[in-house]
């Protein structure tokens, strides 16, 4: 596999770092990056071939990873369209639909669409992936290998499901950061020093997530196990229920998913 990245920012750097750490050959990686600072950073960190515009190395790649911001994608692809014939194209750009990308790439069909999330930057991401029927098993495996360099992945059966994926795991890190903030603030309100409250909040979220990930019990059973009748946890969970926090979270995800669909519409008209 010879991979060319379009855009060498945060996400591409994380993917390149993950691939190199897993033993992927650096000479088989290249990057097209318009920003001189980003080019310097990547060359210094990994010594990959890097160019300001698509060159013969980009054209020799069999896999192209689209990693520029959604609003930069149309113009970035304009210069690339003649070089994509026969290549597997993997887009990690939020919101841009396959039909839109295909149109911007002169009708190219072999495109996989992915929705990673921010923990990918430390190799702990989760990515939702969709591939249309024209993408072969070998090409799907290529996408898994690349995204697998920064964490786990799940396949979705329809492209439309990438909007709920975006609402859940794409935006999800912000919900978790918000939850940590609220836990810490509430602890402070009960008299804990700020640093103590933040450490308790952060380590509780990290530890509970690790326990849930490792346990054979589903989260609901783990919750029941720590909720003794008449105890402190039950007192708190009763307030969650009476304040309908679960329903509120459901409405929040609906809003995020709807916004994803709207952004896809807007990008399609760009
Ligand atoms: N970061 C995340 O957690 C995350 C999560 C899910 C999805 N994504 C997706 O991943 C993609 C990349 O995000 P990112 O955070 O890595 O963005 P980023 O750090 O801004 O990286 C994009 C890079 O591409 C460069 N660029 C812009 N136009 C270009 C062109 N025509 N040719 C070559 N390079 C060009 C940019 O240069 P300038 O800075 O000079 O513009 C920048 O260095 C986005 O589409 C985003 O939706 C990111």
Can you characterise this structure?
The protein is elongated. The two termini are 32 Å apart. The mean pLDDT is 96. With 270 residues, it is of the alpha/beta class. An eight-stranded mixed β-sheet has the order 3-2-1-4-5-6-7-8, with helices on both faces. 31% of the residues are buried. The protein is built from twelve helices and eight strands. The structure holds NADP nicotinamide-adenine-dinucleotide phosphate.
Radius of gyration: 21 Å
What share of residues is helical?
A: 40-55%
Largest sheet: 8 strands, mixed
- The helix/strand order is EHEHEHEHEHEEHEHHHHHH
Question: What's the structural blueprint in terms of helices and strands?
Answer:
Blueprint: E1 3-6, H1 10-21, E2 29-32, H2 36-46, E3 49-51, H3 56-60, E4 63-66, H4 70-78, E5 88-91, H5 98-104, E6 111-115, E7 125-130, H6 137-147, E8 151-155, H7 162-170, H8 172-189, H9 194-214, H10 219-225, H11 232-242, H12 245-268
The chain binds NADP nicotinamide-adenine-dinucleotide phosphate.
């Amino acid at each position: 596999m010879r991979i060319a990245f379009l855009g060498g920012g945060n996400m591409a750097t994380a993917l390149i770092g993950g691939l190199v750490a897993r033993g992927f050959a650096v000479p088989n990686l290249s990057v097209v990056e318009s920003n001189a600072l980003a080019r310097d950073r990547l060359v210094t960190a990994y010594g990959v071939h890097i160019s300001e515009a698509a060159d013969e190395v980009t054209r020799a790649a069999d896999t192209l990873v689209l990693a520029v911001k959604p609003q930069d994608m149309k113009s970035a692809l304009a210069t690339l369209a003649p070089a994509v014939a026969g290549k597997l194209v993997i887009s990690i750009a939020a919101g841009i639909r396959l039909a839109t990308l295909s149109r911007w790439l002169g009708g190219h069909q072999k495109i996989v669409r992915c929705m990673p999330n921010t923990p990918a930057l430390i190799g702990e991401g989760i990515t939702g992936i969709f591939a249309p029927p024209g993408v072969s098993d070998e090409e799907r495996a290529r996408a898994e290998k690349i995204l697998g360099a920064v964490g786990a992945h799940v396949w979705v059966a329809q492209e439309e499901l990438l909007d709920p994926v975006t609402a859940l795991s794409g935006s999800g890190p912000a919900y978790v950061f918000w939850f940590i903030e609220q836990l810490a603030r509430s602890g402070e309100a009960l008299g804990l020093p700020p640093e103590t409250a933040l450490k308790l909040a952060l380590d509780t979220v990290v530890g509970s997530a690790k326990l849930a990930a490792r346990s054979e019990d589903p989260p609901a059973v783990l919750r029941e196990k720590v909720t003794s009748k008449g105890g402190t946890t039950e007192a708190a969970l009763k307030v969650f229920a009476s304040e309908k926090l679960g329903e509120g979270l459901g409405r929040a995800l609906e809003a995020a998913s709807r916004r994803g669909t709207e952004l896809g519409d807007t990008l399609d008209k760009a």
